[in-house]
Amino acid sequence: MHLTLAALPQEPAGGIAGWAAGLVEAMGGPGAGLAIALENLFPPLPSEVILPLTGFAAGQGVLSLASALFWTTLGSVVGAVALYWIGACVGRERMHAIWAKLPLVKASDLVRTEEWFAKHGTKAVFFGRMVPIFRSLISVPAGVERMPLHVFITLTTLGSLIWNSVLVLAGYWLGDRWEAVGTYVGLASKVVLALVVVAFATYVFLRLRGSRSSNRAQHRRTS
What we know:
By secondary structure, the protein is mainly α. The protein has 9 helices and no strands. The protein is elongated, with a radius of gyration of 21 Å. The protein starts with 14 loop residues before the first helix and ends with a helix. The mean pLDDT is 76.
């Protein structure tokens, strides 16, 4: 007998969870894959909600566990490749032109970033798939730097499979307590975001202080 989430008392009533539940109920595995592809393109859609919910649905027989893992990983790869091509379309020359117009940054900063990505890009793409927020963002510089597409897809598939498996299986095993996964992963996401904000604020502060020091030194030389 085919079960639906609507028949379950634990079905999410609304919001992102309700939207994802509707996709999974209507389309099964492809619905979960579509939700995760959109999550890659729009990071505010939380994988920590969609993936455990998909695992919960698998535990209730709405779809198989193998289908849940296959389609969510395929969705991750499709979304990541779309962002990769956005980065590839922007390209290095256009990125340098955009960078040159930004305040508080230097061309050398972008060059160093490119050098770092050339050296550590494979690790960044693989492990980045398992870090909240950076899951989506890491695809863009991979495209800008034209990482070989087959390498990008392989690393993205492996990293996504690990991340998706952990969250889907957690939802599968926790059953009607699947929402606990989102609570803990959401907390980790907030910590990552806070660290990014602090790092950016520190960068801006150091740039401003360096600019003021340079202006004062130049003023002394000319006076």
